[in-house]
Amino acid sequence: MQNQIKAALKDAMRAKDAERLSTLRLVTAAIKDREIAMRGEGKEVSITDADVLAILSKMVKQRQESARAYEEGGRLELAEKERSEIEIIEEYLPRKLDEEETKAAVDAVVTSIGAQGIRDMGKVMGALKEKYTGQMDFGIVGPMVKDRLGQI
Predict the structure, then answer these.
(1) If you count Cβ atoms within 10 Å of the first and of the last residue's Cβ in the chain, which end, N or C, has fewer?
(2) Mean pLDDT for each 10-residue chunk of the chain (152 residues)?
(3) How far apart are CA 74 and CA 144, in angstroms?
(4) Hey, what CATH topology would domain 2-90 get?
């Protein structure tokens, strides 16, 4: 995944696409920051695709919050810039699951780990994050898991 982003960065340079280049540089900087943080914690330095997906998801969420704040402040040009960055970053994320697919995934994980009730919510969320990083909005999935576990 990192190689794909690096190749896209080079293509953006060749095409002189300033907006795309700027966004991809932010992505590579975030990945480098994560590598440095991991090195500081004494962990292995190689960043996995799951780490990259988590970084990209976090960047999208940050930009969504910024765009909302800019809109509320009447700064529509800045909100539009944030949205265009979101579009570029989302090109590297897997397709988001719709509501039905998300419910099916939650049910499958609850069944596969043998969740017995609400006390297993952490296990279920951990398994979902491991398997579906970048494909789900975990702010929405959390209450969904809680409801599902409350029915057991």
Answers:
(1) C
(2) 94 96 96 88 78 90 95 96 95 89 92 89 91 84 89 79
(3) 34
(4) Hypothetical Protein Yqey; Chain: A; domain1 (1.10.1510)
Amino acid residing at 113: I
Q: What span, in angstroms and rounded, lies between the C-alpha atoms of 74 and 68?
A: 10
Distance (Å, whole) CA 63 – CA 81: 9
Domain parsing of the chain, residue ranges: 2-90, 99-150
pTM: 0.76
CA angle, corner 99, sides to 93 and 100, nearest 5?
A: 115
Identify the CATH number of the domain defined by range 99-150. 1.10.10.410
CA dihedral 124, 128, 129, 134 (to 10 degrees): -160
